[in-house]
Amino acid sequence: MTSVLAVRQKAWMVFFIGTGDGQLIKLVVDKNYHTVCPRVLYRANGDRQVFPRMHLDQVDRKHVYVPLLPNQMERVPVSKCSTYTNVQDCWSAQDPYCVWCSSKRSCTFEDDCPDSDWVSIPDDSQHKMVSYKVVKDSTDQITLHIQTHLTLGQQALSKFTCQFSPSSSSSEFCSRQSPPPQFPKCTCILTDSTLPVEGLDVTVKVRLGNTHINDSLKISNCADISGPPTSVLCRKCIQAGCGWSTNGCSWTQQGEQNDSACKMITSGTNFSKPEITSISPSVVSFYGRNNAVLSGLNLGNVTRVRFQLDMNCMLQESPVLSNTGESLKFDIPSSNKGVVKVCVVLPDDSCHGNALITYQSSPSCTSIAPSSTWSSGKRKLTVTGSHLEFVEGIVHEHKQTDVRPPIQEVKPPRDSNLQTLTYETPAAPKGISTSTVSLKVANELLPCSTINYYPEPEFISFTSTQTGNDVRITIQKKADKLEITTAELSVWGVQDEKEYPCIMEDKEKSNETDFFICEIQQTPSAFKLQMLTIKYGDKTVTLTQNSNLLLLMLLVLLLIPFVIVLVVIVYRRKQEKLTRQMNKRMEDLELDIRNDIRQGFVDLQTEKADLLENVGAIPFLDYKHFASRIFFPESSSLMTMCIKDIGQDVVKVQLDECCQCLSRLIQDQLFLTSMVHALEEQKSFTIKDKCALASLLTVALHNKLMYLTEVMEALLKALMQQSSNAQPKLLLRRTESTVEKLLTNWMSICLYGFLRESVGQHLFLMVSAVTQQTAKGPVDCVTEKALYTLSEDWLLWQAQDFTSLKLKVLFAVGSDGEVSEPLEVNALSCDTVEQVKEKILSTFKAKFGFPYNTPLREVCIEYETNGSFVSLEEVDKSSEVIGEVTMLNTLKHYKVPDGATIKVLSRKTHPPLSPQGSVKDDENFSGKYFHLIDPDVVEDQRKNPERKKLKLKEVHLTKLLSTKVAVHSFVENLFRSIWGMPNGRAPHAVKYFFDFLDSQADNMKITDPDVLHIWKTNSLPLRFWVNIMKNPQFVFDMEKTANLDGCLSVIAQAFMDSFSLSEIQLGKHAPTNKLLYAKDIPKFKQEVKAYYKQVSEQSQVTDSEFKDFLQESSKKHENEFNEAAALRELYKFIQQYFTEIREKLDQNGAPTELMEQLHHVKDLFDGLKSCSWELLSFRSFD
Asked: Which residues are listed as membrane-spanning (predicted)?
């Protein structure tokens, strides 16, 4: 034991004990100082010592921080309540942290139970949840007393009842004179004063709130339990609720009712007392050991081996596998680290002997050398690690494609030590390249490493050199990855069938050949080497001298001219064939280009804007989620933190005081503007920090929008003074300062109502129209490029021919095979299975107005053919594979015709045959896939000549124009709703801010009207509307695909060009996104100028009107943000740059009271932090 942490939990004391071998043990002690069996909460890999100081998590008090030497920290739960699945197991754990929660029907922590309907253990340790005794008084009246050993919540305590049900009697069992149940006891006065000889089975049903506990009792006439006083009879007496006295069984009040009295009684049978002399092995890992051997005397009657931990806890028994009378075999079960007592059990359940078994850490593997072997096996590998003496076997699991991995086990030698273990590899089945090595310990497989199997080493030839009586031999071997050493080879020279050993000396490498050098010493005179025998593993290779080398060289020289002539003939024939193929390809190319141009012309002239405008309910996001996505587009943590959800916990009082003081401080305009300027002057304060600061201020001051507006105006005036000296046209062009992000947030708040009421519907219809138009043509599932798009970058110009299909879709209803009425769905022959599912669910929602009840990822579809249904999957065994790339299955692949019947099922009721039904299921990107765009691999042209047809991107540019025609009316409606003026008035915020810009231009003596136009454009259309237009997911509950993002960028570019003052000259090399709306931009520009003029001529918004508007906006959404969280995040900036802020306040002449208020806020936050650390230290010593 190296450390102890004591925690009081209710009436119990809980000790968390750290040990020197890396275990965290929990020991529970009740109010009477009785201990419960210790439990291991954590066990480290290896023998890392627990540091002497442990801490309880002060946030939830449900975790212990366990430091392990030298530099490891673990956060371990104080209890494993969730592992207990019923009320009996939850109670039997005797864990004061756990309660059985009836409403959740699970074992959990008490504060995790939503109500007081829970059941827990009592204040003292007990062995049974329900105990009973039977009493017989002087009038022969029999009374059954039930005692529950529980602690209840208030709701469970109010519903405490007991019900007694005998199994063999239909008459009333308990007398009406029985007292009512009163927790924790129930009493039943039996109506019959006599009991049957065989006893009476009674079921007791105890109700504790919504928790029901059933217990079966067997009530017997105590006087009928008679016989010789043996331990068996004693236990039978105690279990019947009777008492045991010296002479035999009696009623409870006349004897003991504790089974400890039975331990002193003999069993009544005569067995020779067994003795244990040794156990091999006596030291094992905590996984146990199979086929251990116990030796001793008088072992013939032993039936089991019993293992006893400290404090008589956690009895484990193992059956005897074989028994010779002097020794027996058995399996040592797994346990925790430590020492356990072992005894042998006789048939009368008595246990004899007192041997010890020590449990230590499990083996671990760090490396295997060498890391490869030859396919025939028998190469010696050395495993390095720790505690390897506990390894019972080495297991090789071979990896093989499309076949269940074969497993081979090798027994290690007996002389393995603690750190190294050497064994011989098994032979690998044919086709195996890698094998995973695991260590077998008892019934566990511990992963070790992976080794490679390579082909057998290839020995080519050898040469010999005579030096005196010695012969020096050089063996040539083809280079490979086996890295064979000289120690692994045994070589003999052979002359006249007599072998002479060759002593290995060295190994050399040169290019693609390995050279092994050995020497045969003291050879006889006239020694002539005839052959060489080489042995590695269990393989033997024989090499002979090369005598026909000269003849072979002459033969090669004669064949060279014939080979040259043959090559020339083959080359000329190939050239002629390639010329014919090239001419044919050119003709096909011309025909394809003609067809593509004609089809593009037809699409352009026949395209109709027939997209549906009725899209059902528009899925607007509520205000707080809309605003948070605008405020924190790149920080999901701040977004989540600043939204106040329903039921959110109340912040602590100390934090409230700190936040209130900080809130009052930032409501001082001098402080707030000084703080912003001080932070922006720091080089380490990035643009990301400026945006976060602006958004946090917006959340913290959301209930005081008028004050926030004043601060924004002050900061804008300061920014204009900076910009006036340089280029005023660049003002508000980008978001590079805090006030620019603050302006974005302010516009979002003020224009939310206008967005919902006037623009939202047109924006959603435009997005829906683009989506529907895209779905009319092929969309590549992998790259997301589409044939019908507005962006040239996302144009699927490589698309092959396709046809439109009308599918009859049936939906499974219930589990009896019933189906719905058919639903007609439009699809394309080139659609993948996943795209077909999306179109089916989209059509379902469009027709019925609500989504299908099963998510897309849990839906599978089947195609009816010849009276049976075939499951459609994106990837299955029939998928076409080109090189390493797999083509996704389409309707054309499955040969689905027009008018085919498709059935929609749930994966839960009909699991797929393939483990991967979609490319999206491949989360690890382990495979390569393609859909409509061919992979860049070499393929067989004879099989698929049409796949490599040359496609020209410029031929398909007309698809951009046809898509623009289809959605143009929706785009125009959206633009005009933005610069439209409902009731002849612009929104209050627009008029107010434009007037503010006009006044600032007058103050700064700016007479250029273009500057004012640019300011207004940068502040409203480009800052707010373009952001909304390119990110509709900020407004609606929807997903934005990459292709949709490209289309929206083109539309947003046209919107921005409509506000531009410069005239752009476009030529044939201009980008298509500029050319697409080139004719519409002049008309849009005129409408924008008219809009600016109408706003300028509109009557001013009075201060009181605008103040009422802001107050109404604040009040409408006053409880939707977590201002306290925003203030805490703001203080982090103040804390980081405290000195700089204080210096800026001094420069601006801040009053003393303001400086004191700043220091007071700092003291409050510092005191809160110090208080938290003191509380943590205090509780650790509790």
From this structure: 549-571
Contact 814, 831 (CB under 8 A): no
* Residues 422-434 pLDDT 10s: 999 998 888 778 8
Q: For residues 102-110, give the mean pLDDT.
A: 93
Is-contact 966 789, C-beta < 8 A? no
125-150 b/e (C-beta count within 10 Å ≥ 16 → b): bbeebbebbbbbeeeeebbbebebbb
Contact between residue 1030 and residue 1042 where contact means Cβ atoms under 8 Å apart: no
In this structure, what token pair is assigned to residue 1043?
């292709």
SS3 214: strand
How confident is the model at residue 581, as a pLDDT? 87
SS3 annotation, 162-193: EEEEECCCCCCCECCCCCCCECCEEEEEECCC
Residue that the structure tokens 């086929």 belong to? 291
pLDDT, residue 1175, reads 45
Query: For 151-179, how does the pLDDT look when each residue is reduced to its tens digit (9 = 90+)?
Result: 999 988 888 999 998 877 667 888 888 89
The percent of the chain in helix, strand and coil, each rounded to the nearest 5, is: 35, 25, 35
Q: Could you give the CA distance from residue 170 to residue 148 in angstroms, rounded to a whole number?
A: 26
Q: Cβ of 221: how many Cβ atoms within 10 Å?
A: 20
d(CA 1001, CA 1010): 11
The residue type found at 1154 is L
Confidence of residue 645 (pLDDT cuts 50, 70, 90): low
Pairing of strands 289-297, 327-332: antiparallel
Assigned token pair, 1: 């034991």
Q: How far is CA 1157 from CA 385, 658, 1142, 1145, 1152, in A?
A: 62, 11, 11, 12, 9
Q: Which residues contact 770 (CB under 8 A, 6 or more apart)?
A: 790, 963, 967, 1044, 1047, 1048
Residue 1044: CA count within 13 A, CB half-sphere: 19
Other CB atoms within 10 A of residue 1142 CB: 18
Which residue carries 């890992």 as its tokens? 285
**DSSP string covering 584-605, please?**
HHHHHHHHHHHHHHHHHHHHHH
User: Which positions ≥6 away from 130 have C-beta within 8 Å?
Assistant: 146, 147, 148, 149, 204, 206, 213, 215
In whole angstroms, give the CA distance from residue 1155 to residue 231: 85
Instruction: Quote the CA–CA distance of 1004 and 30 in Å, as a whole number.
Output: 81
- pLDDT exceeds cutoff 80 at 508: yes
Distance CA 445, CA 262 (A): 43
Q: 353: helix, coil or strand?
A: strand
Q: Could you tell me if 423 and 413 are in contact, meaning their C-beta atoms sit under 8 angstroms apart? A: yes
**CA 555 from centre of chain:** 67
Phi-psi region of 210 (alpha: psi -120 to 50; beta: other; left: phi over 0): alpha
Question: CB 1010: neighbour CB atoms within 10 A?
Answer: 12
User: What pairing do the DSSP bridges indicate for beta strands 470-478 and 459-467?
Assistant: antiparallel
Residues 657, 244: Cα–Cα separation, whole Å: 67
- Comparing CA positions, the residue from 471, 586, 460 lying closest to residue 524 is 471
Residue 489: φ, ψ to 5°: -110, 140
Contacts from 309-315 at CB under 8 Å and sequence distance 24+? 309/37, 309/335, 309/336, 309/338, 309/340, 309/341, 310/38, 310/338, 311/35, 311/37, 311/38, 313/37, 313/38, 314/37
Contact 1138, 678 (CB under 8 A): no
Q: Which residues contact 4 (CB under 8 A, 6 or more apart)?
A: 15, 16, 17, 18
How many whole angstroms separate alpha carbon 1159 and alpha carbon 1144? Answer: 14
Residue 237: which of 246, 226, 247 has the closest Cα?
226
Residue 1114 and residue 571: Cα distance in Å, rounded? 84
Strands 130-136 and 106-109: unpaired
Q: Please give the structure tokens belonging to residue 630.
A: 């605008």
Q: Is the model's pTM score more than 0.85?
A: no
